[in-house]
């Protein structure tokens, strides 16, 4: 089987020749990804290209600004250099006053850190949501390149965010949880407005270009211990169902992305009708083992993940080998499983230990994953 055939078959619970292996956010077939430009990642990326199944993370270009709307004329950014970081200070003018945010990117880490969120109060949320909704536009001009690079080596996956994944990051996370718990009606009203914008934007995105698989991010911010289980049913499930259905209407597959303690939410997740779920974290990071999750889902959803990144970054290779063997044993039977780390390294340079452990993970999965 080609990697493309293998991944699609696993997601659909069809027969495969072996358990698919995904390196997750280390994408072998995307020449623009940092990991394919960084010399310290070269040996690992060569191994990934040769022996794994590429799940290429790629998104349409968009002019969306914030809160699911586009308003570039309202936004001003000032960038400055620190000793080992770049800091961006942003100001947005709303119909009810100005808001500011600050974030940093450190030179040796490929991610942004939020130092100041847009909203410090419910009043600030009202300011942000007062910005009129203008539909973003989407540009698929890069699609030909990425499609040619991936080919039969895998599938293309785009990411979309549910209302929770947008609203909960308006504020510092602790403040957002207090908002949801103490001003629940206001929180609900905000989510409804974001969802109405999101669905328009998602359909415009799908009309511009539909890819193989869509990862829906956001519900993890509402799983315990952050918020009580009933909140998932009220504020995650209804939106996920509508997002899933719209994507299915365009012939694509859906993977729900939900870190943390999903054991209390698994029935709600299954009710959404998605095709796959990641990253399926086991205790102590999650609250349900892969074996238990496999038994509970009973072929209703393809499971991705369950191999913690911290294991690959810190453990001995012999421990990685045993953990990978156990994951295969727990979830191989009946198909519907893609072994995958729960995250990916973002530090530069890549450590020799992480490199060695990734190679051990891949080679062990090939050894034990044959059907």
Which terms would index this structure?
single chain, 371 residues, alpha/beta, TIM Barrel, 2 domains, 7-stranded parallel sheet, 4-stranded antiparallel sheet, 13 strands
Describe this entry's structure for a reader.
- By secondary structure, the chain is of the alpha/beta class.
- It folds into two domains: 3-70 and 132-368, TIM Barrel (Alpha-Beta Barrel), CATH 3.20.20.210; 72-131.
- 40% of the residues lie in helices and 19% in strands.
- The chain is built from 14 helices and 13 strands.
- The strands form three sheets. The chain has a seven-stranded parallel β-sheet with strand order 1-8-9-10-11-12-13. Strands 3-4-5-6 form a four-stranded antiparallel β-sheet. It has a two-stranded antiparallel ribbon with strand order 2-7.
- Helix 13 packs parallel to helix 14 (352-368).
- The mean pLDDT is 97.
Count of DSSP H/I helices:
14
* CATH architecture label name of the largest domain: Alpha-Beta Barrel
The share of residues in helices is 25-40%
How far apart lie the N and C ends?
12 Å
**Mean pLDDT figure:** 97
The CATH C-level class name of the largest domain: Alpha Beta
State the secondary-structure class.
alpha/beta
β content, as a range?
15-25%
Strand order of the largest sheet: 1-8-9-10-11-12-13
Write the layout of secondary structure elements.
Blueprint: H1 3-11, H2 42-51, E1 54-57, E2 61-62, E3 75-81, E4 85-94, E5 97-106, E6 113-116, H3 122-129, E7 138-139, H4 143-150, E8 154-161, H5 163-167, H6 173-182, H7 184-208, E9 213-217, H8 229-235, H9 237-249, E10 253-257, H10 266-271, E11 276-278, H11 290-297, E12 302-307, H12 309-314, H13 317-331, E13 337-341, H14 352-368
Parallel strand pairs: 1-8, 8-9, 9-10, 10-11, 11-12, 12-13
Antiparallel strand pairs: 2-7, 3-4, 4-5, 5-6
């Amino acid at each position: 089987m080609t990697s493309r055939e293998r991944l699609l078959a696993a997601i659909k619970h069809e027969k495969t020749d072996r358990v698919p292996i995904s390196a997750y956010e280390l994408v072998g077939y995307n020449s623009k990804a940092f990991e394919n430009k960084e010399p310290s990642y070269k040996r690992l990326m060569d191994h990934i290209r040769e022996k794994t199944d590429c799940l290429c993370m790629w998104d349409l270009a968009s002019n969306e600004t914030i809160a699911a709307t586009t308003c570039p004329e309202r936004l001003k950014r000032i960038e400055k250099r620190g000793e080992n970081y770049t800091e961006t200070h942003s100001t947005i003018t709303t119909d009810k006053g100005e808001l500011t945010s600050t974030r940093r990117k450190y030179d040796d880490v490929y991610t942004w850190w939020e130092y100041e969120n847009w909203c410090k109060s419910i009043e600030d949320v009202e300011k942000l949501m007062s910005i009129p909704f203008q539909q973003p536009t989407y540009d698929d001009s890069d699609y030909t390149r990425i499609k040619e690079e991936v080919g039969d080596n895998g599938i293309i996956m785009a990411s979309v965010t549910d209302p929770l994944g947008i609203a909960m990051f308006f504020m510092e996370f602790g403040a957002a949880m207090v908002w949801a718990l103490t001003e629940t009606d206001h929180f609900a009203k905000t989510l409804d407005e974001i969802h109405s914008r999101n669905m328009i934007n998602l359909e415009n995105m799908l009309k511009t270009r539909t890819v193989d698989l869509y990862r829906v991010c956001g519900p993890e911010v509402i799983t315990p211990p952050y918020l009580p289980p009933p909140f998932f049913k009220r504020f995650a499930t209804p939106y996920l169902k509508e997002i899933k259905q719209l994507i299915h209407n365009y012939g694509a597959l859906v993977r729900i992305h939900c870190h943390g303690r999903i054991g209390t939410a698994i029935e709600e997740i299954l009710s959404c009708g998605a095709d796959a779920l990641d990253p399926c974290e086991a205790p102590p990071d999650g609250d349900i083992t892969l074996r238990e999750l496999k038994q509970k889902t009973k072929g209703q959803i393809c499971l991705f993940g369950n191999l913690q990144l911290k294991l690959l970054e810190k453990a001995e290779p012999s421990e990685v080998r045993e953990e990978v063997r156990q994951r295969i044993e727990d979830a191989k039977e009946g198909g519907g499983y893609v072994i995958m780390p729960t995250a990916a390294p973002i530090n530069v340079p890549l450590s020799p230990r992480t490199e060695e452990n990734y190679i051990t993970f891949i080679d062990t999965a090939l050894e034990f994953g044959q059907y």
